[in-house]
Amino acid sequence: MVIRSPCEQYLKFLLCHPDGYSPADIRAMVRMQQLDFIGMPYLERLKRDMVIPRPFRPDGAYHTVSMRFMRREGITLLFKPDAHMVTATSILSQPRAKELAESMIISRADPSWTCAALKKNGHYATPESIKLYAQYYFNINLVDATDLRTLLELRSAPDGDTRDPDETRIGTTKYKVSRGDQRRISANMGSPEDALLMSMIRLGHLPTGVDAGRLVAATRIISIIQAKESTDRGMPTMGKDYALIAKMMTEIMEQTGDPSKSVTEGIADIKLITDGNKTPHIGELMGEHTLDMQPLGDVEGDEDEHPR
Length: 308
Prior knowledge:
By secondary structure, the protein is mostly helical.
C-alpha cells in the first residue's frame, strides 16, 4: 500500500485553495498533469491533518493566521511564487522536460546537471527551480523504492474509467511501450549511481572517471549470486542466462587484468593468450640447421682492394 504521494505539497495547495476545488476536481487535475494521485482516503486524511484556518486569506500579507498556516504546511511559494517557482511549475506543461527532469531526480543527479540536460534538449531551468520541482511536485523522499516503481507503473496503466474505445486502445498501447520510459528504467535499477550513469549516456554524454573495471567485477559477482538464486528457485533457464553473463564478465576481467585498476591501466596490462606449451629451440624447428659459429674463409681480392 502506498501511503504518501510525491506531490503531497501540491495536493495540500489544492485542498486549501480559495477556489474550493472538490476532491473529484483535484483528482482530475493531478492526473491530467501526470502526477501521482493515490486515492480519496489519502486526500481526506491530508485535509483533516492540515486544519485549514477560517477564513483563509493567502493573498492577505497581513493576515497572520493564514501566513503562519502556509509556512507550517510549506506551501507559501505555491501561493506566492518567485521566479524559480514559476519556472518549476512551467515544467508541468512541458512533457519532454518533465520526463527528463523526473528521470534525473530519480537518479539523484545534481540540479546543475539536470539544467544542463534540459538546456541541451531546448528547455530552460535553474538549479533552484529543479529543487523546487522535486520538493513540490515530485518528492521521491516521501516514498520508498517499491512505492516509486508502483506509482510510475500506474501512470501508464490504462484508465479504467473511460468507455471510449479510442482512449482504451491508446491506453493499452501506451502501457506496453512505457516499459522503455527512462523514469521506470531508472527506478528499477539497483542504485542511483547506475541510474545516473545510464541517464547521462542516453543523453549523449560519456562520463569521465568511470572505473569500468570495478563495474565489470561487480556485475560478475551479482550474476553469480543471481545464477545460484535462480537455480535454487527452480528456474534453470534464468540461471543459465546469469551464468553466461558471469562467464562474459570473467573473460573481460582476464583480458583487462586487475579489475581494481582503472580502465587505462587495465588495457596496458592486457596479456597474450598462449596454449601454455614450452617454446621449442630453433634447432628443433629447422632440422639440420645449427647456430654454431663457422670460421670465416679467405675472400678473393682482399689484398688488392686493401693494400697495406
